[in-house]
Design goal:
single chain; 105 residues; mainly alpha
């Protein structure tokens, strides 16, 4: 049998810390929004204003995640995977919150 040739690339590049942080903000925002939706469904729409404030904080987290992801994408000589994931996921979270607000108005 032929042994497959492995192409190993050694590099001193690393992922941007800002990109990783942006992805973590997107994850926190998404999980919190899912929690709020489940709690609202269980309460049959009768929720306290605290949940609205938490939803607003999710919007702020997503906005900050987009900005931090863009800052991470601009760092030279790095891997940008987490920066792109964070930017896209935060935009999806913002669209999700916007759809919830539009449906509620």
């Amino acid at each position: 049998m032929k042994a497959g040739k492995r192409k190993i690339i050694y590099s001193n590049k690393e992922h941007t810390k800002k990109g990783i942080f942006s992805s973590l903000l997107a994850l926190v925002s998404f999980l919190t929004l899912c929690f709020l939706i489940v709690m609202s469904y269980r309460a049959k729409g009768e929720i306290s204003p605290t949940f609205g404030a938490i939803g607003f904080m999710c919007t702020l987290f997503s906005s900050a995640g987009i900005i931090i992801g863009l800052m991470g994408k601009n760092e030279p000589d790095k891997f940008y995977l987490f920066a792109y994931i964070g930017i896209i996921w935060n935009v999806i979270d913002l669209l999700f919150v916007s759809a919830i607000l539009y449906a509620g108005i």
